C-alpha cells in the first residue's frame, strides 16, 4: 500500500494550489455578492489544460486520473466553491457520460469541445417531480421519422447556460410495463429549448444553476447516447463519479474553514491568551483536522478504485456522504471559533457554511447516499 501521491499528482496539486491561492481565492467574496460566473478563471483553467483533465488526449484531454481530478476540485473549492462545483459538474456530469457511453463520432463532436474549454459540460436528470426519485422522469422523447421530439423540463441543472450541448434523460417508450428511459444529447441552441437562469440560491452564488424547458425540441436519432433504455443506469453510473467530485468539494471547503479557524485562533486574544492556547479550541481544531484527513482519504480511495476499473459505487457514496456532512460541521465550528465575527460576511467563514449545505443535497441527498450504501452492504 502507498499513501503518497504520484509525481504527476504532486505536480498537478502544486500547480492548482498556486492558481487557487493567487487567482481564484482573491475574487471569491466579490463573486459571492455579485453572483458573477467565473468565466475568466475558466479561460485560464482551459489554457492550463484542466478542462479535459481525466479524458483521453485524442479528444483534447490530459489523460490524467480520477485522483488528479479530485485534487483539482478540492483545491478550487478551497478557494471558491462556486468555481469548484462548476469544474466538478463540467468534468464528471458533462464530460464523463460522453466519455463512458458515447460513440467515437459523438466523442469527437461533443467531448472534444468540453476538453478544449469551448463548451462547459452539463447533464440533465432532475425534474420538478423527479428529484431523489430520479427514475420518476416525465420528460418524453417520441420518434418522428429520423428524429426524437422531446418535451419536458429539468431543474437545478449546473452549467447549462454555458454549455453548447448536454445529455439528458427522457422516456422513450415502455418496456414490460416499465418506463424505458434513454439518454439523448441535445444542443442548447435547438429550437424550443429554453434555459432559465433566475434561481435565488443560499450559496454557491457564482455557479450557474438553471431550469430547462423543452418544447418540441427536435434532435436526430443519432443523438441517442449509449443504448436505448439504458439512460437511467448510465446516469446512475455517471453520478457515482460525480459523487467523488462533490466529496472533493467537501474536503476543499472544510480545509478552507479549518485554515481560517486555525489562523484566527492564534491571533484572537481573550482572557489574556490566544484562543489557540485554550484546550477547548485545540480539541475543536483537532477534531476538525481529523475529519478532513479521513474525508480526503475516502475521496482518494474511491478515486483509486475507479481508476483501477473496480466497483466504487459504495465508496463514492460513503466519501460523498461523509465529506459533505463534515464540511458543514467544520464550517460550523469555524464560525463558532470566530464568534460574532464569524457571523459577519467579511470574515468569509459564513460563506463556507452556505456553500457546504448544497453538498448534502446535490448529486443525491445524504438520505439517498445512506440508501445507496445500505443496498451496497446487503441490507
Ligand atoms: N450504476 C449502474 N447501474 C445502477 C446504479 C449504478 N450506480 N444504481 C442503480 N443502477 C441500476 C440498477 O441495477 C437497476 O438495474 P435493473 O433494473 O437492471 O435491476 C436500475 O439501475 C434501477 O435501480 P434501482 O432499482 O436501485 O433504482 P431506484 O429507482 O430505486 O433509485 C436511487 C435508486 C439510488 C434512489 C436513485 O434514484 C438515485 O441515485 N437518486 C438520486 C438522484 C440524484 O443523485 N440526483 C441528483 C442529480 S444531480 C443534478 O441533477 C444536478 C445537475 O447539475 C445536473
TrEMBL record:
This is Acyl-CoA dehydrogenase. GO terms for molecular function: acyl-CoA dehydrogenase activity; flavin adenine dinucleotide binding. The keyword Oxidoreductase applies. It catalyses: a 2,3-saturated acyl-CoA + A = a 2,3-dehydroacyl-CoA + AH2. Residues 6-118 form the Acyl-CoA dehydrogenase/oxidase N-terminal domain. Residues 122-217 form the Acyl-CoA oxidase/dehydrogenase middle domain. Its cofactor is FAD. Keywords: FAD, Flavoprotein, Oxidoreductase. Belongs to the acyl-CoA dehydrogenase family. The keyword Flavoprotein applies. CDD domains: SCAD_SBCAD. It comes from Planococcus salinus. Residues 229-377 form the Acyl-CoA dehydrogenase/oxidase C-terminal domain.
Amino acid at each position: 500500500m502507498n499513501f503518497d501521491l504520484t509525481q504527476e499528482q504532486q505536480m498537478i496539486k502544486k500547480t492548482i494550489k498556486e492558481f487557487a491561492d493567487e487567482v481564484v481565492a482573491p475574487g471569491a467574496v466579490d463573486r459571492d455578492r455579485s453572483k458573477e460566473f467565473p468565466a475568466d478563471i475558466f479561460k485560464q483553467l482551459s489554457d492550463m489544460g484542466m478542462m479535459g483533465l481525466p479524458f483521453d488526449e485524442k479528444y483534447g484531454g490530459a489523460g490524467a486520473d480520477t485522483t488528479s481530478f479530485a485534487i483539482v476540485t478540492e483545491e478550487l473549492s478551497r478557494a471558491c466553491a462556486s468555481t469548484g462545483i462548476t469544474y466538478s459538474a463540467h468534468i464528471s456530469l458533462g464530460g464523463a457520460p460522453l466519455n463512458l457511453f458515447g460513440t467515437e463520432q459523438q466523442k469527437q463532436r461533443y467531448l472534444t469541445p468540453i476538453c478544449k474549454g469551448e463548451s462547459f459540460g452539463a447533464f440533465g436528470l432532475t425534474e420538478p417531480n423527479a428529484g431523489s426519485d430520479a427514475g420518476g422522469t416525465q420528460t418524453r422523447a417520441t420518434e418522428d421519422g429520423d428524429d426524437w421530439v422531446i418535451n419536458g423540463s429539468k431543474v437545478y441543472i449546473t452549467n447549462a447556460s454555458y454549455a453548447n450541448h448536454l445529455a439528458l434523460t427522457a422516456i422513450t417508450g415502455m418496456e414490460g410495463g416499465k418506463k424505458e428511459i434513454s439518454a439523448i444529447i441535445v444542443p442548447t441552441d435547438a429550437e424550443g429549448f429554453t434555459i432559465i437562469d433566475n434561481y435565488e440560491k443560499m450559496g454557491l452564488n457564482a455557479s450557474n444553476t438553471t431550469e430547462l424547458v423543452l418544447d418540441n425540441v427536435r434532435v436526430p436519432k443519432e443523438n441517442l447516447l449509449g443504448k436505448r433504455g439504458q439512460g437511467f443506469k448510465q446516469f446512475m453510473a455517471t453520478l457515482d463519479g460525480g459523487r467523488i467530485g462533490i466529496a472533493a468539494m467537501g474536503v476543499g471547503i472544510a480545509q478552507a474553514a479549518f485554515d481560517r479557524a486555525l489562523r484566527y485562533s492564534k491571533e484572537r486574544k481573550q482572557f489574556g491568551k490566544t484562543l489557540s492556547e485554550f484546550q477547548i479550541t485545540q480539541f475543536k481544531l483537532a477534531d476538525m483536522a481529523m475529519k478532513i484527513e479521513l474525508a480526503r482519504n475516502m475521496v482518494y480511495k474511491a478515486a483509486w478504485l475507479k481508476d483501477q476499473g473496480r466497483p466504487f459505487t459504495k465508496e463514492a457514496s460513503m466519501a460523498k456522504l461523509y465529506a459533505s456532512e463534515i464540511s458543514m460541521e467544520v464550517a460550523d465550528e469555524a464560525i463558532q471559533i470566530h464568534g460574532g465575527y464569524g457571523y459577519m460576511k467579511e470574515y468569509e467563514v459564513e460563506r463556507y457554511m452556505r456553500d457546504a449545505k448544497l453538498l448534502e443535497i446535490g448529486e443525491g441527498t445524504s438520505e439517498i447516499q445512506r440508501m445507496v450504501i445500505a443496498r451496497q452492504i446487503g441490507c
